[in-house]
Sequence to fold (632 residues):
Amino acid sequence: MRITEHPILEFLRGEEITFFFNGQELKGYEGETIAASLHAAGIRVLGHSHTMNRPRGLFCAIGNCSSCLMVVDGEPNVRICVEKLKAGMRVETQQGKGHLK
Amino acid sequence: MKEIEILIIGGGPAGLCAASAAANLGATVLVLERDGEPGGQLVKQTHKFFGSKKQYAGDRGYQIGNLLIEECKKNPNIEVWTDTTALGVYEDGVVTAERQGKHLKIEPKKIIVATGASEKMIAFPNNDLPGIYGAGAVQTLMNVHGIVPGQRVLMIGAGNIGLIVSYQLMQAGVEIAAIIEASPTIGGYLVHASKIRRAGVPILTSHTIVEAYGQESVEGAIICRLDENWQQIPGTEQDLNVDVICLAVGLSPLTELCFQADCQLKYIAELSGHVPIRNEYLETTRTDLYVAGDVSGVEEASSAMVEGRLAGISAAYSLGYGAGVAPQLQAEALAELSELRSGPAGQKTVKGIMKLMDKGEAVC
Amino acid sequence: MLNKTGIPTAEDVKKVSPSEERLKKGPVAIIECFQEIPCNPCTEACKQGAIQPMADINNLPKLDFDKCNGCGLCLSRCPGLAIFIVDGSYSETEAIVRIPFEYLPVPKVGEKVAGLNRAGEELGSFEVVKVQSGGQKNKTYTISIVVPSDLAMDVRSIRLGGVRHAN
Fold:
């Protein structure tokens, strides 16, 4: 959920843009991270672990922990907590460890 | 190869203050910041800071952050590279970094490492479920992007971060089910605790999390009381209906670059982990490499700013800048640090630094 | 115990309370700061010379109740939101309590809000008589509510709705 009013802060959001999560069309704002847009849309499960297949979510949100790796426009292992959203981006949950092109 | 007099790794409170202090004495400075914006965690702090006027007391963290960023922007001696991650510090003094997919080499005369700290994790069943966040992640989502992490939160840890982030969640309209703390007393400032408590949020000391549960993400948590030996007391379990568990269980200094640069490090519990051995002007055992802020021992942002200033002055002075004024400025910064650490709240840091320095002098 | 629960004890509060007589005279600050931490903005905020400068920044603030006129400058400056203004002279049976406030929505004058004690327990529904903005930079509102005189040293927080969200 997005905060519309805050007692201390103001949120200056960029332009509203469209992107795709596993093929589903979603809205987000330019300038925010992919993780922020997914969270605002209520998506908290970002993938599953390699061996135990346990759900994985956002943990550190600053590019430290690698809990949020996803496939973005075909590139695997993107830390979506620090990668900025762009119009038309295709964000997909990653199966396995990903392959370098 | 980019040549620069002083390279600062990390654009948080310590790094920005180091940059301003060094540049004001005439040195040319480059700051590397891996995030898209400088300011570090300061820009996520909505509460008014403690300390004195010299550390901007009474101003809110994000306001101080903006002020430090502005000061650096105005100073022609300072260059800030954002979206730039330092990768390594080599034997010949070359520092490598990644910026927009490019591998860069920088050759500085002096290096100030101000990389900050990372959040600690604790072990409990299902601690990997989505919906369990480090407190810093909640701050980033909420105070940078304006997105709340959920509806109802269990906060683990009643240190300053646990208390402050709980208050920030309440300000964003999120309910706090409870703040739990394993230790028998609240670790953070009691004024923070009191303002949360009087709004109706229970702060439960001598309590721990037994487990989190949920299918694909957090649906609840079991907490229980601890006895005086920190053992769980059977029969005291409570089931909390929460969709977010926030961990504020301490920070570890981010010392990887110091390790790699072959600085001598020492484990000091009071400073929250392995920290580089350094002299009083914050120069490590690797000549020309300084540290400042949480990487040199986890503390408040107020002291990180003063440490940054001290490291900046010291690095510039060692390059021949500020001959007339630097010793005086160093003395002022040292006096501010000992003032900030002189009370009961600073005892732990003082003890940690004493341990670190004793050994440091023996080794040097 | 304050350091176990966050709730100041009656003894803690007594240490920072003025006399009944002083309370009856007019507005006065109650500085509920019980822990030595490095912090001194209240001493610089006071224009009456009522909060003495600190020899050591970790000292607890010392307030001279007779010099204090209850202006509230310290209240809006305190980083810990630990200062309240109590005016026991409001009427025979009622007092005004001024409370720092940093939530949304901000209550309106005339509105009834729940008054809470230091443990967050509701003590009743009280009328808001004054709402002061902290301004662009400070942002801390101060809310004045009318409470029965015997609750003037107990009501320390208010409760209304939460922040509004949109999807």
